[in-house]
């Protein structure tokens, strides 16, 4: 039986839809939302087309049993795809069921419309030239590996719609999507791409049936989905949600002067209690109200992940005031703020946390007196309730709410953390706290996957092996030429060419050809590729290539002529002695996102799930020394500066008494610190550790170089950035002595980039992919093993 569906509609403004009567304060709170026949409305992920004086609502039909798709790294709950429904209304209150606008197929596994597939987020626009109604939707397989958009057309708004097929726009993944028709008749497709890390905006053809041959990347590396877009007073507004599966999170709105221009994030549009979870809902569509240029309806879904047919709807008023988007749930009469007097501190939340996990919180603070300066704090405690470390935000003095928060790493020995507010003033007045948002275990997969790659093969050194396993290549097309990419060596024999996740194998002569060490994509091959026009060509251009490479395994007889890592174990005598004696060894990696392993496949929880380079190194070191008592601690904090590392070295390193500290900073520092400043901070870390742990030894890593095209020659700061990076390498080499060695990844990465492309080896301008991460692991192992 169809479950109860509920819509909450809350209009606080007058609304005149055509000639219908005004709607004043309609508020369906917990009541069933039925159509005019008394049946429950089934239209999820909805979009609305206003044609003539009728509103047509299209949505996903969800019916049947909800099940959890096995083998996924997130809660992938699904029901059979039920097709797309259509409802019509003249007043947005009474809805007539017009039928199934797009009918699914059952038992046809090759069809996009099979009930075993995913058909989501339908949106319909009208083409005044062709007189066709065009429906776009997200088409996928239940494991989200298909990542396509589908298109269908009809002569009537209510359908039935004729399905034309699906594709990946410009060869790019497309998941959550929407479409937008501008006032000039041009239409645009907006979709989550690049493994949901970045959104793309692409203009559609004049008939609205296919995307144009270029696109703009927006909200880069911000992991946004559920786009809902509208235009107000010449500016474009885009509301999105964070990627958190079926669980609600805070909305974000972004603003641009043109659809394909620069988009600026403006924060959460939701106001009041529940704003941090978009009132337990996720954005779907924004409907402009006729006759009122400032009023809109925000449509959202309240997903019930374990019983998807019982998912509900949330419609709320949306206003734009002085360029600011505001969505408020008027069910709440209580302001819901926490008020606090300034003569004490207030703990807002206390939570158990895991040592070396990454957390972040934000809380809104305001004062009722301007002389009162408040701040939020984060304190860590051990099992005996002793305070281990406190972080404080900068003081805030404002009568309106200002966001305050901290992003950091949990120190060792921590049992729990407290988040609170306090004041540095004893003056009269009060502080107010609202909308606490807390994220724990950031970047840690819920269930780590077993690697799909052979780790022994992956640790065979590139420089002296006659077989190269799964070398990554980004197939790249310049100026419309066939996509191609280079291998490090000239192959004698190609063993396999696979997709990056290793799930699909491409065939020689069908999908690609080989010329010396260049692999060339065939015209009709479905191998992933990128065009030169798909990358930003501006200073500090950012991108994300996750899963867009191919992986090539081949034999060769070429010799590596570049720089080589060499054995330096004689400079770490204490560590080597322990390894040879099979005594317990503790190794800690202290640094930034590269240290943490960010963007290798296990970190982003994508096949082939290769472990981080630190994990690979520790594993191989144990195998080389037949040693099973190596303990590895990863204390990398994404975004960390070397100054942070120097400030807190004694808090994060000394309590574990390590034998080896791998220090890896720099990629966040070259913007601001000279080589001498950087060297001083590194020396401070070493000194602080040795003061309490005189037998600890150190391995200093010179950063891999960033993508050479990241900073253009026209950037006036380019020489400053590049000289800092090269200078860091030199000063780390100067620090080498007994007990301190250096791995030069700067020169090594430059040498690899020269022979291939930087984008073959990196997920984005600042992070290695699996292939380059293996160079880290193999080089570290070589330095400590004979």
Q: Care to describe what's here?
A:
There is one protein chain. The chain has 786 residues and is mainly beta. It is 13% helix and 37% strand. The protein has 10 helices and 48 strands. Strands 1, 20, 21, 22, 23 and 24 form a 6-stranded mixed β-sheet that branches. It has a 5-stranded parallel β-sheet with strand order 43-42-44-45-46, sandwiched between helices. Strands 2-3-6-7 form a 4-stranded antiparallel β-sheet, with no helix packed on it. It is globular.
Features:
six-stranded mixed β-sheet; five-stranded parallel β-sheet; 786 residues; disordered N terminus; mainly beta
What is the total tally of β strands? 48
> Unreliable runs, pLDDT <50, ≥5 residues?
1-31, 331-337
Give the overall shape: globular
User: What's the helical proportion of residues?
Assistant: 10-25%
Distance between the termini: 69 Å
The number of helical elements comes to 10
* Whole-angstrom Rg: 28 Å
Report the structural category. Answer: mainly beta
* Binned strand content: 35-45%
Largest sheet, if any?
A: 6 strands, mixed
């Amino acid at each position: 039986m169809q479950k109860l569906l509920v819509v909450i509609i809350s209009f606080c403004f007058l609304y005149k839809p055509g000639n219908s009567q005004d709607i004043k304060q309609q508020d369906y709170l917990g009541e069933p939302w039925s159509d005019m026949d008394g049946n429950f409305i089934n239209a999820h992920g909805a979009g609305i087309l206003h044609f003539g004086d009728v509103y047509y609502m299209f949505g996903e039909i969800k019916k049947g049993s909800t099940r959890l798709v096995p083998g996924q790294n997130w809660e992938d709950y699904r029901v059979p795809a039920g097709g797309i429904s259509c409802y019509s209304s003249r007043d947005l209150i009474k809805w007539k069921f017009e039928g199934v606008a797009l009918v699914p197929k059952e038992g046809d596994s090759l069809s996009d419309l099979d009930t075993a597939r995913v058909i989501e987020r339908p949106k319909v626009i009208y083409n005044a030239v062709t007189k066709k109604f065009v429906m776009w939707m997200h088409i996928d397989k239940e494991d989200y590996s298909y990542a396509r958009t589908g298109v269908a057309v009809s002569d009537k708004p209510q359908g039935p719609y004729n399905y034309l097929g699906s594709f990946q726009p410009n060869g790019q993944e497309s998941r959550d999507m929407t479409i937008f028709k501008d006032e000039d008749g041009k239409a645009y497709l907006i979709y989550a791409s690049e493994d949901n890390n970045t959104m793309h905006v692409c203009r559609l053809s004049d008939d609205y049936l296919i995307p144009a041959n270029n696109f703009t990347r927006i909200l880069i590396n911000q992991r946004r989905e559920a786009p809902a877009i509208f235009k107000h007073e010449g500016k474009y507004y885009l509301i999105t949600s964070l990627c958190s599966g079926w669980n609600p999170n805070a909305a974000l709105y972004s603003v641009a002067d043109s659809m394909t221009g620069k988009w600026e994030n403006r924060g959460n549009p939701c106001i009041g209690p529940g704003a941090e979870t978009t009132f337990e809902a996720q954005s779907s569509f924004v409907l402009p109200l006729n006759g009122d240029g400032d009023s809109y309806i925000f449509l959202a879904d309240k997903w019930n992940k374990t019983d998807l047919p019982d998912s509900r709807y949330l419609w709320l008023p949306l206003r734009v005031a002085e360029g600011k988007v505001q969505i408020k749930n008027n069910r709440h009469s209580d302001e819901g703020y926490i008020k606090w007097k300034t003569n004490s501190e207030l703990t807002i939340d206390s939570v158990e946390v895991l040592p070396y996990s990454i957390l972040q919180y934000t809380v809104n603070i305001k004062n009722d007196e301007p002389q009162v300066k408040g701040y939020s704090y984060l304190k860590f405690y051990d099992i005996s309730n002793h305070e281990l470390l406190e972080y404080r935000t900068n003081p805030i003095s404002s009568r309106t709410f200002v966001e305050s928060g901290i992003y950091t790493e949990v120190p060792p020995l921590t049992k729990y953390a407290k988040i609170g507010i306090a004041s540095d003033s004893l003056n009269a007045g009060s502080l107010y706290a609202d909308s606490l948002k807390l994220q724990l275990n950031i970047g840690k997969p819920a269930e780590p996957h077993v690697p799909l790659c052979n780790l022994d093969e992956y640790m065979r050194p590139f420089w002296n092996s006659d077989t190269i396993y799964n070398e990554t290549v980004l197939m790249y097309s310049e100026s419309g030429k066939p996509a191609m990419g280079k291998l490090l060596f000239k192959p004698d024999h190609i063993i396999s060419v696979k997709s990056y996740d290793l799930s699909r194998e491409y065939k020689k002569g069908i999908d690609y050809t080989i010329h010396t060490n260049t692999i060339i994509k065939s015209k009709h091959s479905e191998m992933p590729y990128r065009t030169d026009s798909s990358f930003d060509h501006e200073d500090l251009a950012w991108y994300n290539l996750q899963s867009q490479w191919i992986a090539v395994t081949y034999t060769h007889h070429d010799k590596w002529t570049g720089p080589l890592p060499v054995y330096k174990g004689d400079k770490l005598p204490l560590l080597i002695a322990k390894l040879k004696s099979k005594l317990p060894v503790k190794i800690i990696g202290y640094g930034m996102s590269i240290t943490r392993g960010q963007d290798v496949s296990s970190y982003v929880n994508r096949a082939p799930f290769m472990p981080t380079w630190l994990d690979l190194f520790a594993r191989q070191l144990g195998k080389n020394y037949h040693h099973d008592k190596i303990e590895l601690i990863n204390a990398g904090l994404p975004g960390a500066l070397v100054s942070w590392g120097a400030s807190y070295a004694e808090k994060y390193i000394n309590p574990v008494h390590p034998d080896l500290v791998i220090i890896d900073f720099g990629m966040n520092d070259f913007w601001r610190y000279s080589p001498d400043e950087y060297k001083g901070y590194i020396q401070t870390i070493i000194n602080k550790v040795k003061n309490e742990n005189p037998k600890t030894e150190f391995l200093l890593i010179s950063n891999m170089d960033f993508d050479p095209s990241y900073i253009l020659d026209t950037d006036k700061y380019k020489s400053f950035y590049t000289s800092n990076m090269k200078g860091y390498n030199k000063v780390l080499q100067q620090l080498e002595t007994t007990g301190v060695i250096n791995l030069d990844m700067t020169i090594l990465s430059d040498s690899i980039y020269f022979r291939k492309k930087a984008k073959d080896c990196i997920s984005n301008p600042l992070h290695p992919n699996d292939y380059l991460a293996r160079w880290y692991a193999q080089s570290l192992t070589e330095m400590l093993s004979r």
